[in-house]
Amino acid sequence: GRLSFCLGCKGASLAIDTEAASSLSAVFWAAEAVEKKGTGQIQDLACGIGVSLILAKAWWPAHSAAGFLSPEGRCLTFDATATGHARMEATGCAVMRNKADVVD
């Protein structure tokens, strides 16, 4: 609502709480809005924006005490020396329209 109003957008606006998959969910629903498959009103253009913010500090002591956090401050994904994970904030955005409407 509020962001759509400030940007002057028209059409559907959804707020979805999906924990760490907010960007993926937003892009999925944007793709659903522009597809012509008879499930509702077709939009010419759709924007999917997802944001993950860590606003509470209460998780930090519990995760540290349990040994979940990496002492190096890096998660070392797919590395045999990985010792934990690192929490982060992120955002993702995709603007799309139907492939049939795209003109080269």
UniProtKB/TrEMBL annotation:
SUPFAM superfamilies registered for this protein in UniProt: Thiolase-like
Taxonomic superkingdom: Eukaryota
Residue stretches making up the Beta-ketoacyl synthase-like N-terminal domain: 1-100
GO molecular function, one term: acyltransferase activity
Keyword rRNA processing listed: no
Organism expressing this protein natively: Strombidinopsis acuminata
PANTHER family: POLYKETIDE SYNTHASE 37, POLYKETIDE SYNTHASE 44-RELATED
InterPro entries listed in its UniProt record: Ketoacyl_synth_N (IPR014030), Polyketide_Synthase (IPR050444), Thiolase-like (IPR016039)
Protein name: Beta-ketoacyl synthase-like N-terminal domain-containing protein
UniProt-listed Pfam families: ketoacyl-synt
Keywords for the protein's UniProt record, in alphabetical order: Transferase
Keyword Transferase: yes
Cleavable signal peptide: none
